[in-house]
Amino acid sequence: MYKTAALSIFKVDSSAARFSLKAALKSKKYDIIHIHSLYGAIFYIIAIIFWREKRLLARTVFTIHDTFPDFNIKHRLMLIPIMFLFHRLVCCGQASFESVPSFYRWLAGSRLCYIPNGVNIEQINNEVSHISKDSKSPLFTIVVIGRLRKVKAPFDILRALKQIDDENVRIVFLGQGPLFELLMSEIRKLGLSNRVELAGAVSRSKVYEYLVNADVFLTPSRGEGLPVAVLEAMACRCPVILSDIPSHREITSDADFIPLVKLGGIAGFANEIRKFKKMSKQERIIIGEKCRELVEKRFSLTLMLERYKKMYLDVLAEQ
Question: For residue 107, what are the CA distances in angstroms to 72, 82, 96, 309?
């Protein structure tokens, strides 16, 4: 273990996970134990049973970071003991909360609630203040952020781009994932090598640099909890084009300046890209400002932390 001014960090590797967890739990008395990982929560439950320390379940919180349809069978089974045993269960947004099936709601009862994700606007302000926007580039740049996996539907983006006969429209993918090589192959097959960049995993500051200089952020994702990448793009004043899924509808409620495209709607995404391309830079700036205002109003880290603080205090009051 080592400490910072306000944070104790326990180094864990797979060979010593049980002992590291025990050391962390035995080091001092905790008011709240908050777990975000399904595997971490299951391991915690097993450890508590093994050590016969059931009292450590009294102040536990678990956050569900996805909508229920996106969980596979194994993860759904893992959720059963978590929903039954954890003292408070928090969905990362209203869409996530509403996706929980009746059986799991019955297990959790009144212990289930939701607190929408938020982004650190102050940190983003600090990061983007050092970035100079390239306003002279003739290129229309679309940024896509996320792991390259099936649920993110990256191939839909390529096919939408293929429908746009404009060499000045380009796409940058930020992120790694199991589909990286297949995506590379598809880019070559479609003849898009000069219009698509696979930047891979980049630093957070580099992400903000891409977003500040992008003309639009796009995601055709088929499933999300409450996507932080979308919120960060909006906080960077980048207009967004989103797939029509519950979590994106949660973000865009009463926001008619954000288009939602039906799942798999390749032509729809292509049309929305064309619309943004035809806009003047000033029109896109105005939409970007509206995106920023929406995040400040409803999805700031400050607001999220206030809600978690209230929940923590409620949990302590129940003991």
Answer: 19, 9, 16, 24
pLDDT digits (tens, 9 = 90+) for 129-163: 888 777 667 899 999 999 999 999 999 999 999 99
Find all residues with CB under 8 Å of 50, minimum gap 6, and list them.
none
Q: How many Cβ atoms are within 10 Å of 252's Cβ, its own excluded?
A: 20
Q: Which helix (H) or strand (E) holds 109?
A: none
Supply the pTM of this predicted model: 0.90
Give Dmax (Cα) for the chain. 65
Local structure of 196: helix, strand or coil? strand
Say if residues 273 and 216 touch (Cβ distance below 8 Å). Answer: yes
For the stretch 274-311, pLDDT in tens is: 999 999 999 999 999 999 999 999 999 999 999 999 99
Among the four given CATH numbers 2.30.40.10, 3.40.50.720, 3.20.20.370, 3.40.50.2000, the one describing domain 31-118+302-317:
3.40.50.2000
Instruction: Give the whole-angstrom CA distance, residue 95 versus residue 233.
Output: 20
Is the CB of residue 279 less than 8 Å from the CB of residue 259?
no
* Closest of 6, 318, 84, 220 to residue 230, by C-alpha: 220
